[in-house]
Design a protein that fits this description.
4 copies of one chain form a homotetramer. Chain A has helices at residues 7-31, 38-44, 49-55, 59-82, 88-105, 108-112, 120-146, 155-170, 183-197, 203-209. By secondary structure, chain A is mostly helical. Chain A folds into 2 domains: 1-56, Arc Repressor Mutant, subunit A (Orthogonal Bundle); 66-209, Tetracycline Repressor, domain 2. Chains C and D meet through helix 7, helix 8 and helix 9 of C and helix 7, helix 8 and helix 9 of D. Chain A binds a DNA duplex (21 and 21 nucleotides) through residues 1-6, 8-9, 12-13, 16, 37-39, 47-51, 53-54, 58-59.
Chain lengths: 210, 210, 210, 210
DNA sequence: CATGAATGAGAATTCATTCAT
DNA sequence: TATGAATGAATTCTCATTCAT
């Protein structure tokens, strides 16, 4: 009789949403934001153009959410490490290392898109993401300083710089990894780089902790 | 009567070219790449739209060249320092400091616009520029390592990370300086950050050298 | 088991139909035809979009019926006056006055929205309504002429003009009433205007009759 | 050598603008605003879609200007009469008569479009036009009252009503003229209607003046 | 060479209507 | 019968590039 929103239907709705994001992700990974027109995304998701607008108010919102989706897990992981019981330096090193590992292993392409042009609204999302990521690092650095284990630097500046170093070093166009370097070695180097940068004491030990 | 490209004509040609680049620069600095339409640039340069195409094969080429123009001086300055006679650490510190000073002093906005993602056609140029800049730092780091004054790290990775740290820390959206911090202090911090990052010995002295 | 359209079901059907019209009326009154999308009307009626199509073959039909519904009462009232026993001039004056009163009192906004141009599909209905309203006035004028109390003019032209004067004067964009004038005074004026226009004799008396 | 905006070019520009308006006029006259899509208008004018935007900032502006263009002449004519030296009643009668003549003779279709739905911005133009037209009549009525030749009524209300009567009676959907009546007779009737409506004295003479 | 009007391929978004559940 | 998700045609506006003058 009456229409009922069954589980099956719910599942289809969720599927569509996911399908749209997935399609967008694939297209962006392949051809950048440039190629992510709404019609193309819809087609890739096997849906009509208008349907996309049932799930996202605008193209910009879709792309912004895509970005957040891609990065959310990374921030989560780093946050978990930041909240662990280890020593400041160990936590910081771990966070850098894990972030680097994931970036190199996983969505190298998606990360590259962090640097790619897009609509202003998408940039806002990017901004937010970086700010969040930097925030996690800033807190770790702050605690390191308070514990007397890091150099007395502006935690925000240091965090921004660390994030910049990570993104640029790992996934930017300069990334040595892209030119065939050994990932493990890159990770070791970048962890050491960041530890030194914040003036972490007992660097050797810390790195050994990994 | 054969056409002769006189000096006068040459001069006018050069003038127009420069005017176009200058106009583009102003527009990009003010409103980002978004507002740098060919017609707008032409108008700002006091020329007709079509004339732009006498000097640049396409909008992308124009913007790419604009980017190179803006950065050429920075790279030049850093290169000069890199080729000076000072000690590796001093040279490196100087390069970082001067770069930071110029970035903070010069139109921070223009920098932000240049380094923020903005236009797909320009990405290649951007990457090229960063690569070049990183190259200069890589050479300095390499020499520092060879001289036994820096930690033994991959110079390319370190250079990329330094560039990332500088850009993100100074002109990126997270830059503390953008939130009203004292520039001199930011510069001191970032120099120290980079020196530590590359494992420069006698850091204190080096910084004192400035 | 054969389907039986019970009274209960009939009632529900009528309810839904009424609910849709009511919702449409509210939306049109608030935001004009512009905002009367089928989905919006359905939502406001607490029904699903598709359900609207159970009761109206198309959006145009819905709006046309809405218009008729809104105006039916007005036409009814005017018709009742037209069929009363009073003298031609008195009837005419009364019809004008009552119409004006109702127009000014009743949601002026709704009226304005109804008479303002808004949706091509609805024009036919609008025309029909105006024609009907004019028809009632035409008959009154005709009788006034036949009784020798009105000037000998084309009743249809006069009726159309009277309707035009009423709508424009009372609810149109030029309506002085909309600019804060006293309603009672406006009504007096417009009745006098129309009486004079049709050449009603003993105008003073007629107006006094009210 | 250099491009020069010759007379020929100026003429072409003016031609294009005119061609666009003309094409729009034809399309609107034939199929109403509904069919006046930018692409259709451009095609009918023998131009590319984008070209329309060189001459009009938006579709709404184009249509609004079209409306103004269509009505400007009428208002001009009526204004000229309003400023003539004749007696108030004669001027008023003349204004009504000429307006009616032109409306019936000329662009009956275009006038009809005064009643047609359109974008909100176009409605504004319509509003403006009616206001202007009513303004001219209001001034005439005011002077008639001041000269003691018209009934003492609110000039604005009367003017609005006169405009309403004219538009509805002559070009509106109810207009008897549209149904094959003799134009000359219609004009006589409506002039008489309006003169009576404003309570003009010596009506006979005035009408005889025509 | 310079000009700037013309071009027209796109791309985002809306919403009446349909139809499987 | 009711539902509401899906559809996709339709439409406006932008802007890099061309080319007649």
């Amino acid at each position: 009789m009456a229409y009922r929103r069954t589980e099956k239907i719910e599942a289809r709705l969720a599927d569509n949403r996911a399908a749209i994001l997935k399609a967008a992700r694939r297209i962006v990974a392949d051809g950048g934001f440039q190629e992510a027109q709404v019609a193309a995304v819809a087609a890739a998701a096997g849906l009509a153009t208008g349907t996309v607008y049932r799930y996202f108010p605008s193209k910009a919102d879709l792309l912004a959410e895509l970005l957040r989706m891609i990065c959310a897990r990374e921030i989560e992981v780093v946050t978990a490490i930041a909240e662990s019981e280890a020593s400041p330096a160990a936590r910081f090193a771990d966070a850098v290392r894990v972030f680097a590992e994931r970036a190199l292993r996983g969505s190298r392409l998606a990360y590259a898109n962090i640097f790619e042009p897009a609509a202003p609204e998408v940039d806002d999302a990017r901004f937010e993401i970086r700010r969040e990521l930097a925030g996690v690092f800033a807190r770790m650095i702050e605690e390191g300083i308070r514990a007397g284990r890091f150099a007395r630097i502006d935690p925000n500046l240091a965090a921004a710089s660390v994030v910049g170093a990570l993104l640029e070093g790992l996934v930017g166009p300069l990334a040595p990894g892209r030119r065939g370097r050994d990932d493990a070695r890159v990770i070791l180097d970048i962890v050491a780089f960041c530890l030194r940068a914040v003036g972490a004491k007992e660097e050797g030990n810390v790195v050994a902790l990994r």
